[in-house]
């Protein structure tokens, strides 16, 4: 091996900490309840009996059920989230400008090649 083992251990430890924090923060966001002050998804609530059971791994079935609940919640929230979105006319205008810019760039590219 061309690298020192201590550097490898340090790197893998840092990577696992980073990944753990990302996963923890993401699952924490999904698990928070939905209220006016905290507009989170609130789709992970534990087991039907109200327990969490964090001392064991989830089964594939449990993960699929939790994911389905979250996706259903997201699908329900999508139509309600139209505040602050650009109108369709702005999108069409942006697409037209992008096409025009692409044509001009192609013409410029052809001139540079010649």
From TrEMBL:
Classification via PROSITE patterns: SLH
Residues in the signal sequence: none
InterPro entries: Cell_Envelope_Struct_Comp, SLH_dom
Domain SLH residue range list: 10-81
PANTHER family listed in its UniProt record: OUTER MEMBRANE PROTEIN ALPHA (PTHR43308:SF1), OUTER MEMBRANE PROTEIN ALPHA-RELATED (PTHR43308)
The protein's name: SLH domain-containing protein
Organism of provenance: Dulcicalothrix desertica PCC 7102
């Amino acid at each position: 091996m061309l690298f020192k083992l201590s550097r490898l251990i340090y790197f893998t430890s840092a990577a696992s900490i980073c990944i753990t924090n990302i996963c923890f923060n993401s699952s924490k966001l999904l698990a928070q309840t939905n209220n006016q002050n905290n507009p989170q998804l609130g789709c992970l609530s534990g087991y039907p009996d109200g327990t969490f059971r964090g001392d064991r791994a989830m089964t594939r079935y449990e993960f699929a059920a939790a994911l389905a609940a979250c996706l259903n919640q997201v699908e329900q929230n999508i139509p309600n989230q139209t505040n602050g979105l650009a109108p369709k006319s702005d999108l069409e205008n942006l697409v037209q400008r992008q096409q025009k810019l692409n044509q001009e760039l192609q013409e410029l590219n052809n001139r540079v090649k010649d």
